[in-house]
Task: inverse folding
């Protein structure tokens, strides 16, 4: 039997919430990014997820020298705290030029902006010692189907991926699928779509997926099945664990907070595949409850990490011979009851 994985954990600085949401005023004061890095290790995390402008705020208005200088400053901060940058993602969805999408926009000028911003994001990633880029294709879709030529849109996405691979011969690209929000219907809504793009790319080994639990649930799919599909193709770059209460807005609830059994099966699939043995992170993307007081607010991060580890212990204490007996007999009623009793500590 393989040696159990000692997991490494990551989160993005945006997960230490300042208390704002689209439905009212902020309820907590902002907490500076520079002060957040000192929190990671004491909370049990060593990986930092980044958007490009988390590293270099206002990067569109900076010269290349200024951009690299700020990136070097952040790298020093990370080194001083013993932190590893897990990935950098170009944040394209805040700029007015990407209201119709970046890579799939009907405007050539807007597509040019998106590509220029993406190259800057790759430069930032390499400057802080990171070799992974995440593409969350947030506005790459449409509000009405007739607005775009979907076949052409997918071609443009593939051209972008190939352009990124050519721009940096070492960078990996992790596509993070999501079926909707902020667009009504997004291109690349599932991990299957992402992996199809990977295989169509000029260097399939360097194109993988990042699966967020809530995004899979919003597509009406089970996150563990999405993870298993990516793992079967050796294309799971990372995960964003959280939870989701139904087909609503993207809630980013604490991992296991809505459905503990769904959380358990994600842990089970990762454990069975030996995920993390090559240094892959368990990434969290969870938001603090709006009612939580204080600054900084971090319990949602430590609680989600602890739930993950408790579920790891539950998986590792399963009677695998009994599970095999249930499977061989196709006694799935018995298997389900055993799993439920095990999760309840009975």
Result:
């Amino acid at each position: 039997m393989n040696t159990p994985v000692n997991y490494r954990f990551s989160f993005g600085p945006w997960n230490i919430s300042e208390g704002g949401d689209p439905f009212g005023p902020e309820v907590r004061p902002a907490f500076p990014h520079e002060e957040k890095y000192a929190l990671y290790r004491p909370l049990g995390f060593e990986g930092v997820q980044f958007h490009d402008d988390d590293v270099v705020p206002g990067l569109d208005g900076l010269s290349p020298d200024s951009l690299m200088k700020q990136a070097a400053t952040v790298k020093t901060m990370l080194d001083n705290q013993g932190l590893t940058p897990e990935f950098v993602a170009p944040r394209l969805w805040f700029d007015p030029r990407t209201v119709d999408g970046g890579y799939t926009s009907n405007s050539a000028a807007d597509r040019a902006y998106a590509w220029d911003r993406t190259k800057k994001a790759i430069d930032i990633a390499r400057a802080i010692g990171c070799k992974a880029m995440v593409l969350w294709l947030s506005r790459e879709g449409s509000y009405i189907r007739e607005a775009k030529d979907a076949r052409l849109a997918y071609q443009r996405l593939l051209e972008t991926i190939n352009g990124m691979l050519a721009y940096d011969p070492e960078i990996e690209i992790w596509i993070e699928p999501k079926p909707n929000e902020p667009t009504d219907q997004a291109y690349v809504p599932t991990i299957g779509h992402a992996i199809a793009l990977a295989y169509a790319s000029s260097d399939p080994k360097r194109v993988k997926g990042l699966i967020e639990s809530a995004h899979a649930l919003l597509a009406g799919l089970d996150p563990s099945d999405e993870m298993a599909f990516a793992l079967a193709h050796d294309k799971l770059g990372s995960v964003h664990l959280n939870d989701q209460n139904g087909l609503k807005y993207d809630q980013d609830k604490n991992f296991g907070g809505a459905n503990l059994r769904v959380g358990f099966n994600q842990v089970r699939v990762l454990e069975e595949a030996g995920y993390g043995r090559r240094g892959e992170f368990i990434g969290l993307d969870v938001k603090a409850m709006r009612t939580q007081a204080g600054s900084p607010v971090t319990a949602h991060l430590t609680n989600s990490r602890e739930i993950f580890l408790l579920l790891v212990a539950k998986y590792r204490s399963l009677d695998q011979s009994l599970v095999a007996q249930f499977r061989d007999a196709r006694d799935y009623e018995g298997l389900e009851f055993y799993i439920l009793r095990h999760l309840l500590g009975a």
The chain is about 45% helix and 15% strand. Residues 15 and 287 are 6 Å apart (CA to CA).
